[in-house]
Amino acid sequence: MKILVVDDSATMRRIIMKHLNDAGYTGTVEAENGLEAISRMEGVELVLTDWNMPVMDGMSLVKELRQNPAYSRVPIVMITSIGARKEVVEALKQGVNNYIVKPFTPSILIEKIKSVIEVTA
Ligand SMILES: [Mg+2]
After folding, report:
1. Range of the domain at 56
2. C-alpha of residue 55 to centroid of ligand 1, in Å
3. C-alpha 47 to ligand 1 mean position (Å)
4. What is the CATH number of the domain that holds 48?
5. pLDDT 10s digits, 55-94
6. Which of 11, 27, 80, 82 has the most C-beta neighbours closer than 10 Å?
7. d(CA 57, ligand 1 centre) in Å
8. Domains in the chain: how many in total?
9. pTM for this entry
């Protein structure tokens, strides 16, 4: 399954990709901001994106993807340290399928991915 991991922190991307790999999700691709993510969307089946990033943040990425007919139905999980209810509600309204609040465990990450894949399958 081709999962796109979007985060400005190389360390965070490495951690997430290791968790995915350990759970059997191989073929993961990465991007360091929303703009780069858009250029890597070809064939992507799930997007895992950070919220706070330079150049283009996660919220803007979600809006761009949801407006694009080619990617409007690709499941998106937002990873954020912003646990504030208002932001989460806004993210869901913009088309995020689920969200994860940092810090998270590998099992929470995999659980959220599975829930999103099942719902959108
Ligand atoms: Mg960040």
Report:
1. 3-120
2. 11
3. 15
4. 3.40.50.2300
5. 999 999 999 999 999 999 999 999 987 667 788 888 899 9
6. 80
7. 8
8. 1
9. 0.93
